[in-house]
Amino acid sequence: MKRVALITGINGQDGYYLSRFLKGKDYEVHGITSCSKPGIGEPPENCYYCDFADGSNLNEIMDKVKPDEVYHLAAQSHVRLSFDLPVYTAEVTGVGTLRLLDAIRYFEQQNDKQVHFYQASSSEMFGKVVETPQSETTPFHPRSPYACAKVFSYWQTINYRESYGMFACNGILFNHESPRRGEAFVTRKITQAVARIKLGLQDKLYLGNIDAKRDWGFAGDYVEAMWLILQQEKPDDFVIGTGETHSVREFLEAAFGAVELDWKKYVEIDPQFYRPAEVELLCADPTKAREKLNWEPKVSFEELARMMVEADLKRTRQEKILNESTD
Ligand SMILES: C[C@H]1O[C@H](OP(=O)(O)OP(=O)(O)OC[C@H]2O[C@@H](n3cnc4c(=O)[nH]c(N)nc43)[C@H](O)[C@@H]2O)[C@@H](O)[C@@H](O)C1=O
């Protein structure tokens, strides 16, 4: 019998890589999306619509899918936006997780079956860091409505594990990127601008705090860690990252460097992209994941920047040809 996985936020970057990975392992993959609504745009096959700010159809979805594993990736995940939409972010990114955990608990009771649950926890929870690198034992100091909501979800996951014996785990993932990253996140914003500047479609790139440092890895590598976390004998929490930190400046250097341009000629600072409270430095200590999951990232920082620039160049060239042919 095929194992059945349910992925929330299947329409996002991580949902894409995870469903491909699981299909490669012969899973039957189902998804939850908030992007297409019945009657407006039907969800694709094996996908269900759910708004995590409501969640009233989660019991129904659990009954239909009867999953062995649930990967909870859905969230309002943009940190800057969470300052403008704090209550919505708390509803979706925080209480939404609780709604799902409770639907799983109910399903387990009714069906006498154990579901393995993965919560997409975030390095943003470390926020104003008290030690570097950050491991599973580093205390949290969240610095945004998004990070506060993720801390809530982190503890609810542990609470359901301890209260009801659920196989519920946290993967504390540091920043992970790819050509499928949303355009509002800094890496993709940069690589898209590099492509447009190189092809003569844009001449400036406006950014916020370029001294911030992040531990950036490739999303395609990180979904394997999500799966490994749910294959362990006991439920547990893991930090997933590369162990290397780079500033936004260094990403600019790598991305513009990939097409032999000097970023200093094109980048300007615009305070509208500053955050009311910033997370200055994140760097993972992934020792536990290396030792217990036998997991290691494969794509380096430079390879990641180059991969994203090349994908954006290809996409932008096609757009340019299309625009020129319809002019
Ligand atoms: C792990 C974690 O990873 C992500 O959160 P993030 O680190 O906030 O990602 P980002 O790409 O928005 O910002 C990275 C850094 O770059 C700085 N920065 C400068 N100038 C711009 C700028 O113009 N735009 C943006 N977005 N950032 C800028 C910004 O101030 C910050 O210091 C999410 O996936 C989140 O869901 C998550 O869980």
Automatic annotation (TrEMBL):
Any one GO molecular-function label of the UniProt entry: NADP+ binding
Pfam families: GDP_Man_Dehyd (PF16363)
Cited InterPro entries: GDP_Man_deHydtase, NAD(P)-bd_dom, NAD(P)-bd_dom_sf
Record-listed E.C. numbers: 4.2.1.47
Key word DNA damage present: no
GO biological process, one term: 'de novo' GDP-L-fucose biosynthetic process
Known cofactor(s): NADP(+)
Domain NAD(P)-binding: from-to ranges: 6-308
Catalytic activity annotation: GDP-alpha-D-mannose = GDP-4-dehydro-alpha-D-rhamnose + H2O
Keywords: Lyase, NADP
NCBIfam families associated with the record: gmd (TIGR01472)
Similarity comment text for this entry: Belongs to the NAD(P)-dependent epimerase/dehydratase family. GDP-mannose 4,6-dehydratase subfamily.
Reported function: Catalyzes the conversion of GDP-D-mannose to GDP-4-dehydro-6-deoxy-D-mannose.
The name this protein goes by in its record: GDP-mannose 4,6-dehydratase
Organism per entry: Gimesia algae
Recorded name of the encoding gene: gmd
